[in-house]
Specification:
With 190 residues, the protein is mainly β. The protein has one helix at residues 2-14; strands at 27-39, 45-60, 63-72, 80-92, 97-108, 119-120, 126-140, 143-164, 166-189.
């Protein structure tokens, strides 16, 4: 929750700055990878490396509409996926860099953590709140390095099945999981 408060404070302080996307660019194609920290109410925790493709459209000034997907495949289970719709706002920073904040919502059929090979969720029944921010720095006119922090909260109720040579149903489970991720990647600006 401290991260959300810090991002809101940053947005309010930065709102007086002149917004600016990358001046003559309309589309951003990004690919990020990152280290994820997982924790749940039961006290369990783990880390995971994820890959995330993203497409963004600069709608007006620094306002960018983004769609992203995360897909995880593991032997013996259904694929896990997460689809997010995001709004981000880009602020000018030093030189050829932009600071951005983002917020959005999505759906998922699983929480993308180490439990993917063991538990299978059949429908996109989890809601995913996304809040984050970061930095994009141009390396060339159309290539930028992207670094961001992302907080995600997965909530919902799901029917589970255990995958272990046989598939059999488990009881319904209430999901309330918080993820914090640091993503590093690159963007191609068109």
């Amino acid at each position: 929750m401290k991260a959300v408060s810090a991002l809101v404070t940053f947005a309010l302080i930065s709102s007086s700055a002149l917004s600016q996307s990358f001046p003559d660019k309309r589309v951003e194609l990004s690919f990020s990878g990152g280290l994820q920290s997982f924790s749940s109410g039961s006290g369990s925790s783990s880390t995971l490396f994820l890959l995330t493709p993203r497409v963004g459209y600069f709608a007006l000034g620094g306002l960018e509409v983004e769609g992203e997907g995360t897909f995880a495949f593991a032997g013996g289970s259904n694929p896990a996926y997460m689809l997010n719709g995001l709004l981000s706002y880009n602020f000018p920073a030093q030189g050829r860099a932009r600071v951005f904040i983002l917020a959005g919502y999505g759906v998922a059929n699983s929480v993308p953590t180490f439990n993917v090979p063991l538990l299978s969720y059949n429908l996109a029944t989890l809601g995913v709140l996304n809040v984050g921010g970061g930095l994009k720095a141009l390396l060339a006119d159309n290539v930028a390095v992207r670094a961001e922090y992302r907080y995600q909260r997965f909530t919902g109720t799901q029917n589970l099945t255990m995958v272990d040579f046989m598939i059999y149903p488990l009881d319904s489970e209430k999901i309330d999981v918080n993820l914090s991720s640091v993503l590093i990647g690159f963007s191609i600006l068109l």
